[in-house]
Amino acid sequence: MAVNESLAGSNEEIDRVSAIKATKLGWNLVVGVVRLYELPNQWISKDATSIKMVLQDQNGDRIHCSIGRTHVGMFKSLFRENEIYAMRNFIVQNNSKPPRTTAHKFKLSFYVKTEAAVLRNSKIPFAPFNFFPYYDIEPMPGHVDQFLI
């Protein structure tokens, strides 16, 4: 079920992204979509083979989320960047294969029982970028720092 209006007004406890582990499916999140991108179908340009998102909770913790081909139609028109959503019921998987969009150990995947609803009047501190001072950025291995003064 893609949109469930009762989800937005639910009195269930909200989980933190940092607490997500692979021990259960019933996570309840209130998150903002920091980044959203579709992987296109190589044969049909208007179709997406999957949707990828970076989600952020009110504490600034982030997690990668995927919607596979079989569920894209259920959720494609719902999600937008910089919007806040209530979501629940995910498959939790290890986040070890590149490319990794977040530092979180796990990632979320939507399945047939995943529910999501837009929270139009919700306000959470939402910062789509994490800036670092230039000197705190480590050089990539194998690159020479000859141009740094």
Automatic annotation (TrEMBL):
SUPFAM superfamilies: Nucleic acid-binding proteins. CDD domains: RPA1_DBD_A_like. Pfam families: DUF223. Residues 15-115 form the Replication protein A 70 kDa DNA-binding subunit B/D first OB fold domain. Gene3D superfamilies: Nucleic acid-binding proteins. It comes from the Eukaryota. This is Replication protein A 70 kDa DNA-binding subunit B/D first OB fold domain-containing protein. It comes from Stylosanthes scabra.
